[in-house]
């Protein structure tokens, strides 16, 4: 698969979706179109979703290669239901999500996602709304430390937040490498660490800027509400926060939650499973893919099939 972004677990995703001629599949995170091209090659149609305006050249190339089989809708995947309704298609046979930032975005220093490339401290996937610079220059110590800990699993979140507030008092942050340097110094340098000290901070800021966890939950609910009976859902995640959300959602919706919900056990008991799991647990990349694409190291795939039961959100 050529292009700037190699889709991870591609064979496993296609197996989970099982697309065939006549099917309609949503690629909820179009990116550079890796999954989309593989799905289109089976004869299925694809509706691509992406809130990043920079994907347009990739979408145009796909549309040119597969005329009449592909369309792109610029929307976050929380807008999946509305995007599908706007196509006028009678049924949705599959949906795939590839959660998180793409290597394509990381490679573009001007997008501000990377602590390894100098660029404006931005991190907005849609180029709209609050940027990472707005957060580090404007948030109080408590909320800033909270997101570093919650979204980045950063144990030294308080120390980093203190260093950020101290520095911004004299000079606001505007560049990625500037912030990365301050974080590195706050943590005492690299000291031979296998990962850059700013990794967790940049992850946390990116998740906060783009409301990635809220978008993921909304996207899963939208897929549940929109997939036709027998429709297949495949979700690829890259860190434990995302994977826990997907696991909890599919475990609950497939009726496998131990003891039901402690908040509303009676309601849970009246709901029929809206999904059946395709396999237990999560699938991971094999040795060959890991050797070819180190990004696949943390990837996890979970997949399920939509039942005929009503969507749980609609029944709430």
TrEMBL record:
Family matches, as Pfam families: Methyltransf_5 (PF01795)
BP-aspect Gene Ontology terms: rRNA base methylation
This enzyme's EC code(s): 2.1.1.199
Catalytic reactions on record: cytidine(1402) in 16S rRNA + S-adenosyl-L-methionine = N(4)-methylcytidine(1402) in 16S rRNA + S-adenosyl-L-homocysteine + H(+)
Keyword list, A-Z: Cytoplasm, Methyltransferase, rRNA processing, S-adenosyl-L-methionine, Transferase
Subcellular location: Cytoplasm
Residues the record lists as binding S-adenosyl-L-methionine: 33-35, 50, 77, 98, 105
Organism domain of life: Bacteria
Gene Ontology CC: cytoplasm
GO molecular function: rRNA (cytosine-N4-)-methyltransferase activity
Keyword Transferase assigned: yes
Chief localization: cytoplasm
Gene3D superfamilies from the UniProt entry: Putative methyltransferase TM0872, insert domain (1.10.150.170), Vaccinia Virus protein VP39 (3.40.50.150)
Function of the molecule: Specifically methylates the N4 position of cytidine in position 1402 (C1402) of 16S rRNA.
Protein family per UniProt: Belongs to the methyltransferase superfamily. RsmH family.
Protein's UniProt name: Ribosomal RNA small subunit methyltransferase H
Source species of the chain: Brevundimonas subvibrioides
């Amino acid at each position: 698969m050529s292009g700037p972004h190699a889709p991870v677990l591609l064979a496993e995703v296609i197996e989970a979706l099982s697309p065939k001629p006549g099917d309609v599949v949503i690629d909820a995170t179009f990116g550079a179109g890796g999954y989309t091209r593989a799905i289109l090659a089976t004869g299925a149609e694809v509706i691509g979703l992406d809130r990043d305006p920079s994907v347009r050249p990739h979408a145009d190339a796909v549309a040119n290669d597969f005329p009449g089989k592909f369309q792109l809708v610029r929307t976050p995947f929380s807008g999946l239901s509305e995007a599908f309704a706007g196509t006028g298609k009678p049924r949705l046979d599959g949906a795939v999500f590839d959660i998180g930032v793409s290597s394509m975005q990381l490679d573009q220093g001007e997008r501000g996602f990377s602590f390894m490339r100098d660029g404006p401290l931005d991190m907005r996937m849609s180029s709209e709304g609050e940027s990472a610079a707005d957060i580090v220059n404007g948030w109080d110590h408590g909320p800033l430390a909270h997101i570093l800990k919650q979204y980045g699993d950063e144990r030294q979140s308080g120390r980093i937040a203190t260093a950020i507030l101290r520095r911004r008092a004299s000079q606001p942050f505007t560049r990625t490498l500037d912030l990365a340097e301050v974080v590195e110094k706050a943590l005492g340098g690299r000291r031979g660490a296998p990962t850059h000290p700013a990794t967790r901070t940049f992850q946390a800021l990116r998740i906060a800027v783009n409301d990635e966890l809220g978008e993921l939950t909304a996207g899963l609910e939208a897929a549940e509400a929109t997939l036709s009976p027998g429709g297949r859902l495949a979700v690829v995640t890259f860190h434990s926060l995302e994977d826990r959300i997907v696991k909890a959602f599919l475990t609950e919706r497939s009726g496998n939650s131990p003891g039901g919900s402690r908040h509303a056990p009676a309601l849970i008991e009246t709901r029929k499973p809206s999904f059946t799991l395709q396999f237990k647990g999560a699938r991971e990349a094999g040795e060959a893919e890991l050797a070819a694409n180190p990004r696949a190291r943390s990837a996890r795939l979970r997949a399920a099939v939509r039942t005929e039961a009503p969507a749980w959100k609609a029944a709430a």
